[in-house]
């Protein structure tokens, strides 16, 4: 079921076209990734979905109704996690959750139960009495997420939620997103970290200079390019028979060999690996291990723009 539909929205700041007529949709229960470098327009896009900014043109529909005309249609069902930490540093974690919970209209027993539940989800239940100013960057990020979950939103928007944090907190946040999605929560996740988007997102929109330049699953996006697989084969010994057989194999574009490794550039083809393994038949070389490096979203972005994602 289509939960959110974005139609040709635009937003311009003076001479800068931050968002330039983009359209996409979000299915209920999916994790949609907005992937792109800093300045691509991701944060401006989700600020419009969150009703913090009004589009200069276009419209946004939540459950079939325009939230540009009537922002209240999404506010009660939306959890928004901004890129900047939105907490009161001199208050404790508990006091922050109580403040924001009351802002969502929670009171009494319901508020207490939601704080307990959320603090367990984000993994800081033992530090709730401490002031936020004493938290690490990762703990602040976790609490920031907890605030957005208090009112049990149907859709959560996360804007670069792992920027500048330690690996342990980053892993915890990613696993939290996975768990929330398994429970049925719809997520829009923005990042310039390709690995996070590949891990979390069922569908991806790649953004650059305010436009969506490609959209689809990871597999659909990588199939757009004529990128080759890299296959590294570790052998017990090198033999000229194997090298000659691999060089004459139509699936192999390039053969390199050094010490106990043979490194191949191989066409994306289902039968390619089987044909490569067959090259070792009746030769002195035995395969010890095979490592396959598939084309990734970085390669897609490079193909579409001529530059790396983080340039």
Q: Could you give the topology of this structure?
A:
Layout: E1 2-13, E2 16-27, E3 31-35, H1 42-49, E4 57-62, E5 65-66, H2 72-75, E6 78-81, H3 93-103, H4 108-122, H5 137-149, E7 155-159, H6 167-182, E8 186-191, H7 194-200, E9 203-208, E10 211-216, H8 218-222, E11 229-235, H9 240-247, E12 252-258, E13 261-266, H10 272-278, E14 287-293, H11 297-305
Parallel strand pairs: 3-8, 3-9, 6-7, 7-8
Antiparallel strand pairs: 1-2, 1-4, 4-5, 9-10, 11-13, 11-14, 12-13
Features:
alpha/beta, Rossmann fold, Alpha-Beta Plaits, 6-stranded mixed sheet, 4-stranded antiparallel sheet, 11 helices, ATP-binding, AAA+_ATPase, ATP hydrolysis activity, ABC_transporter-like_CS
Describe the structure.
With 311 residues, this protein is of the alpha/beta class. It has two domains: 2-222, P-loop containing nucleotide triphosphate hydrolases (Rossmann fold); 229-294, Alpha-Beta Plaits (2-Layer Sandwich), CATH 3.30.70.100. Helices cover 33% and strands 29% of the residues. It has eleven helices and 14 strands. The strands form three sheets. A six-stranded mixed beta sheet has the order 6-7-8-3-9-10, with helices on both faces. Strands 2-1-4-5 form a four-stranded antiparallel beta sheet, with helices on one face. A hairpin with a 2-residue loop joins strand 1 and strand 2 (16-27). Helix 3 crosses helix 4 (108-122), helix 4 (108-122) packs across helix 5 and helix 5 runs parallel beside helix 6. The longest helix is centred in the middle third of the chain and has 16 residues, at 167-182. The chain is elongated, with a radius of gyration of 24 Å. The two termini are 37 Å apart.
